[in-house]
Design goal:
Strand content: under 5%
Number of helices: 24
Order of helices and strands: HHHHHHHHHHHHHHHHHHHHHHHH
Largest sheet: none
Shape: extended
Radius of gyration: 42 Å
Helix content: over 70%
Structural class: mainly alpha
Length: 471
């Protein structure tokens, strides 16, 4: 039993050496027990009290030392000594607080310098409660409204909504740009596309890979090749990796402008970067060779596509057949390839008829072009570009009958889509043959249809006014 009590006393000494032991001596001092097993506790409690007394003496000595130094600095000013002594006693507690405040201020302080005026004075920012804050739910409602207007292609209301968003401080995000750019492309407002691109890059919203694809696609159909190349080069500057869609849209842009050498260069660049081409890539390359009627180059691309076991789609077939339409005197290859296309399950569409009409116009066969256009109209496979090709060619040759027939069909089918170019061609032709009344009727038609005019239209209107005033 004595051995057990000695073991218990040893365990109590171990307990007292921990933090819990600070409360144990006071507990045992209240209980006056004479058990010999607890005698070992007494030395540990004495050690603890001795440490506390030593610490208090050191603290009093430091305070006395500070007081003596203050008396030497201010021997006659008792209140100053008292104040400085109080400050020195609180110095340690306040230093930790200041350190924490400085850390928090460094975290919250902006990295940029405060804004300044031209004179160099600081611009006072408005209080936080008066700053303009954008409600996220309100932004969502604006996004839905913009998508609805863009789907209906109501360009006037779209511009009003954009002005309202700018006044409220709402920036365009990627979803808004995706629905806005196709509308600008539809109405051929390529300058507005570039404005949206520049505004988006300077906004706080980070662009995505699909954003650059949408911008280059919206520029397709114009001659702004340099701008498209600039946008393509800025993709890597924004830290975004090139994708196949980027190369495809750029090659389509080059192909539309007839720069087949740039198309091939971009295709080789894509292969050098390890990108695997798909059917859309080959369709873009064939589009470039089809524009210039390069049969040899188109055949090489076609064989390369078949070697990769890629099934051609309607775009590939149309562009490949167009390469054989350079000579309309012999359309045997065109007929043979068209039959193969139908066997492959792809029927001629509006782009097929558009390419055929363009081939007849390029070879000076305007009557065959008009008959092909009427065939496409009867099948419901016609685009504004097809009408434009026939009208431009007829106006250049001053073939009034063909031009007016195609123009009336364009207005009847309501496919002019706010494109001023056919109207400009008709105005120019009427001015050449001195049909000023018909030119005036065309101008009234432009105003009634609310078609956006360009610089060429303004020049024609001023020339028409001069002729009417002189007459």
């Amino acid at each position: 039993s004595l051995l057990l009590l000695k073991g218990a006393a040893t365990s109590f000494n171990t307990l007292l050496s921990s933090r819990v032991a600070r409360r144990v001596p006071a507990l045992f001092k209240r209980q006056k027990t004479n058990l010999f097993s607890l005698e070992s506790i007494v030395p540990s409690t004495r050690q603890l009290s001795k440490c506390c007394v030593t610490f208090n003496k050191q603290q009093q000595h430091q305070q006395q030392k500070n007081t003596n130094s203050l008396k030497q600095k201010h021997p006659n000013n008792h209140f100053e000594q008292k104040r400085l002594h109080k400050d020195s006693s609180n110095e340690d507690s306040q230093s930790s607080l200041k350190t924490n405040n400085n850390k928090s201020n460094k975290r919250n302080s902006p990295t940029q310098s405060p804004p300044r005026n031209k004179n160099g004075t600081k611009v006072e920012e408005p209080p936080i409660h008066t700053r303009k804050r954008v409600n996220l739910m309100h932004v969502g409602e604006l996004r839905k409204k913009l998508a609805s207007l863009c789907a209906k292609r109501q360009i006037g209301k779209v511009e009003q909504l954009l002005k309202r968003m700018k006044a409220e401080g709402v920036h365009l995000d990627v979803a808004m740009v995706d629905v806005l750019l196709p509308v600008y492309k539809y109405y051929r407002r390529y300058d507005d596309v570039l404005k949206v691109y520049d505004q988006f890059l300077h906004s706080p919203i980070r662009p995505t890979a699909s954003f650059f694809t949408a911008v280059i696609t919206a520029l397709r159909g114009s001659t702004k090749v340099a701008e498209a190349q600039r946008i393509f080069n800025s993709i890597q500057d924004c830290g975004i990796t090139y994708t196949r869609h980027h190369f495809t849209t750029l090659m389509m842009m080059y192909g539309y402008c007839g720069k087949v050498d740039k198309v091939q260069e971009t295709f080789d660049q894509m292969l050098a970067m390890g990108k695997v081409p798909d059917v859309l890539v080959f369709g873009a390359v064939l589009h470039g060779y089809g524009q210039v009627h390069d049969v040899v180059g188109a055949q090489k691309v076609w064989s390369n596509m078949l070697q990769r076991k890629i099934t051609p789609n309607a775009q590939c077939w149309n562009n490949y057949i167009r390469a054989f339409m350079g000579n309309t005197d012999d359309l045997s290859d065109v007929k043979r390839l068209t039959a193969l296309m139908v066997e492959d399950g792809i029927l001629p569409d509006e782009y097929y008829f558009g390419n055929l009409v363009a081939a007849f116009v390029e070879n000076g066969k305007l009557d065959q072009a008009l008959s092909t256009l009427n065939m496409a109209i009867s099948k419901g496979l016609v685009t504004t570009h097809t009408f434009k090709i026939v009208i431009d060619s007829a106006c250049k040759e001053t073939n009034v009958a063909v031009a007016e027939e195609a123009f009336v069909s364009l207005l009847t089918k309501h496919v002019y889509r706010n494109d001023i170019r056919p109207f400009n061609a008709m105005l120019n032709m009427y001015m050449k043959i001195h049909e000023f009344k018909k030119a005036e009727n065309t101008r009234k038609l432009i105003n009634e249809l609310n078609i956006r005019i360009d610089e060429k239209t303004s020049e024609l209107f001023s020339a028409l006014n001069n002729k009417l005033n002189s007459n």
